[in-house]
Every structure is written in structure tokens, then in C-alpha cells.
Write a structure and sequence with these properties.
Length: 311
């Protein structure tokens, strides 16, 4: 019976994921076509036969509904189509080259936010009301207030231009990763610290912890064996919006630091009306978000088995 429920739940999640991605792709397809301009506006000075050949090559001479159907059929076969602005590459090839870069940056940024934000939040909660707590929360507030398009140039100005410790951009060496990861992690790190502090304060005041403390349990045992796991539940639930924050912020950070990732390709594709590239990036990023949401739900159910019964 339990196996049947697990399979049923997985199939339900899969169906929801397919419908979500289809709606996302359809909306993006319509909005791209509705936007003014086209992918070959710079070719208007070319002879009419050249323009007609380009339109035929990329199916732009066909009715919109035919283009949509043909594109969906290609996607169903795993073919995201040719890139309009990078004629020597398919969208699959561009994404295969850019996705590992974005995953590395985003993964390290989220890991940094968790590894630093959670201990800072716990430390602040254990010293609630003291000057260290107020100082940490003030810094966290500043981290949330400064947007990425401001933080990234400031980091370049400080560490690359003034101190000359790290490169201002580029890709290929480990030094190129440091500043983009910090810029991408800062707001998530600040929010993680504040969220962990609030959750830990609420958990430490719970009745069962007071009873355990009355039995003579040490503070370290109370913290690591009884308080930390339930206090991390809101942090785990926050991982989904944190991922979205990383994805949306990567476009700015990758542009500032000249990183050949998904965010940069998305921005360039949108500016150049590279329909297939933008749609391919949207589909891949959407699939990653759906996958991460599912994994986060599973992790929450493991931390709190009561959630499994209502999911």
C-alpha cells in the first residue's frame, strides 16, 4: 500500500511538472513573438531572397500556430532547435556549455549562504539581545538591502581594482569564481541568518526544551540533539525561493563578470530576439526549479515526518 502511494505521488508530481513546464514555455513563446522587433532586423538591408531564405530556414514564414506546433514537437524529441544569433551552434550545445557554469556558480553561492548563514543565525539566537546579535542582524539587513547589480560592481571595485587581489571578470581559473559567488550569495546569506535566528529563538522557547533543560541536559546537547533539526525546517522550506533568487540574480552577476552562463545567454537572447535560445533556457531553468522543489519537499518530509502525511 505504501509503495502504491509513493508511485502515485511521483506520477502526480511528474504530471504537475509537465503541465507547469508546458504553460511556462507557451507563455514565453507568446510573449517573445508579441514583443516588437525580430531576430533578423539587422538583415533588412539584405536582398529580399536572403531575407526569405532566413525566414524559411527558421520557420518564420509559417503561421504562428504552425511554428508553435513544430517547436513543441522538436522539444518532445529533446531538440531545442538552432540558435538564431549563434548559427554555428544549436541551443542544446549552448546550454550544454553554459549549464555547468551556472550550476557551479549557483551551487557554490547557495552552499556559502547555508554554511555561513546558519551558524551566524544560531550564534545570534544564542546571544539574543546582546551587542553581537544586534551587530550581526544589522549586517544582515545591509546584505538584504544592497541589490546584486550594486554589490557586484562594488566587489569588483574593492577586490579587483583597489586591492588587486582577484580578477574583475572572465572565466577559467578558480580566482574567477570567488567574486561572482560572493555577489550571488550575499542576499541569501543575509536572509538565511535572519531566518535561522528567528526559528532558533522560537524553538529554544518550546515547552519540550524547557522540560529537557529541567532534566539536566547540557546546552550543547539541547542545541544539537533537540533544537537544531526543528529549527532548520523553515530554512529548508526557504530553499526553493532561495534557488529562484540565485537563478534570477545569475543574469546580473554573469553580465557584470562576463561569465558564459545561462543567465548571460538568456539576457543576450532576449535582447537579440533569439527565440529558440530564450525558450531553451526557460525550459531548462524551469525543469531545474521543479526538480529542486521536489527534492526540498522530500527533505522537509524527512526532517518532519508529519509533512509526509499531508503532501
Amino acid at each position: 500500500m505504501r509503495a502504491y502511494l509513493i508511485v502515485k505521488r511521483l506520477l502526480s508530481r511528474l504530471l504537475e511538472a509537465v503541465i507547469t513546464l508546458w504553460l511556462l514555455a507557451t507563455l514565453c513563446f507568446v510573449l517573445l513573438r508579441a514583443a516588437p522587433g525580430g531576430p533578423f532586423d539587422t538583415e533588412k538591408s539584405a536582398p529580399p531572397e536572403v531575407q526569405a531564405a532566413l525566414a524559411e530556414q527558421f520557420r518564420l514564414d509559417q503561421p504562428l500556430i504552425v511554428q508553435y506546433g513544430a517547436w513543441l514537437a522538436d522539444v518532445a524529441r529533446g531538440d531545442l532547435g538552432p540558435s538564431f544569433q549563434y548559427p554555428d551552434y544549436t541551443v542544446n550545445q549552448l546550454i550544454a556549455r553554459a549549464l555547468p557554469v551556472s550550476l557551479l556558480n549557483g551551487g557554490l553561492a547557495l552552499l556559502l549562504a547555508l554554511l555561513v548563514g546558519i551558524p551566524l543565525g544560531v550564534f545570534a539566537a544564542l546571544r539574543a539581545g546582546q551587542w553581537m546579535d544586534r551587530a550581526l542582524m544589522l549586517l544582515a539587513g545591509l546584505g538584504l538591502a544592497i541589490p546584486k547589480f550594486v554589490a557586484a560592481p562594488l566587489l569588483v571595485l574593492l577586490f579587483a581594482v583597489t586591492l588587486n587581489w582577484l580578477p574583475a571578470g572572465g572565466w577559467g581559473e578558480w580566482q574567477n569564481i570567488v567574486l561572482p559567488v560572493i555577489a550571488l550569495a550575499l542576499p541569501n546569506l543575509a536572509y538565511c541568518a535572519r531566518l535561522t535566528r528567528a526559528s532558533m529563538l522560537e524553538t529554544l522557547s518550546a515547552d519540550y526544551l524547557r522540560a529537557a533543560r529541567a532534566r539536566g541536559f547540557s546546552e550543547s546537547r539541547l542545541l544539537f540533539s533537540h533544537a537544531l533539526k526543528p529549527a532548520l525546517l523553515p530554512v529548508v522550506a526557504w530553499l526553493s525561493p532561495a534557488l529562484i533568487n540565485v537563478v534570477t540574480g545569475s543574469a546580473v552577476v554573469e553580465q557584470v563578470f562576463g561569465i558564459p552562463g545561462m543567465g548571460r545567454y538568456f539576457v543576450q537572447g532576449a535582447l537579440n530576439r533569439d527565440y529558440t535560445l530564450v525558450l531553451g533556457v526557460v525550459l531548462v531553468v524551469g525543469a531545474l526549479i521543479v526538480l529542486i522543489n521536489t527534492l526540498v519537499d522530500m527533505l522537509r518530509a524527512w526532517l518532519d515526518p508529519r509533512l509526509e502525511d499531508v503532501s
